[in-house]
User: Fold this.
Amino acid sequence: MDLPFKMEQVYNTPIEKVWQALTDQDAMKIWYFPQLKRFEPSVGFNMEFDDDGSSFKKQWQVTQVLSGKKLAHSWTYHGYPGASEVIF
Assistant:
C-alpha cells in the first residue's frame, strides 16, 4: 500500500518573492535546481535539465498554475517507478 507523504514549509518572505523564485528560470537555478535548463510556468510544460551525470533523469511537467498563488509539477524519473506532485 502506498501512503501519501506530505510536507509543509512556510517561508517568512513576501509572496511576490516566493512566486518569483518559483517562476523565474534564473531564480529557480539559484535556489531550486542549478541544472535547470528551461522552464515556463505553463500547464503541460516539460521542464528541461542539463545532464549532470546522474542516473536519475528528471521528467517533470508543470501540472497547475494559479498566477501568484500556486505552482505544481510532477516529480518522476525516467526508468523508475512512482510519481509525485510537488505543490507550492
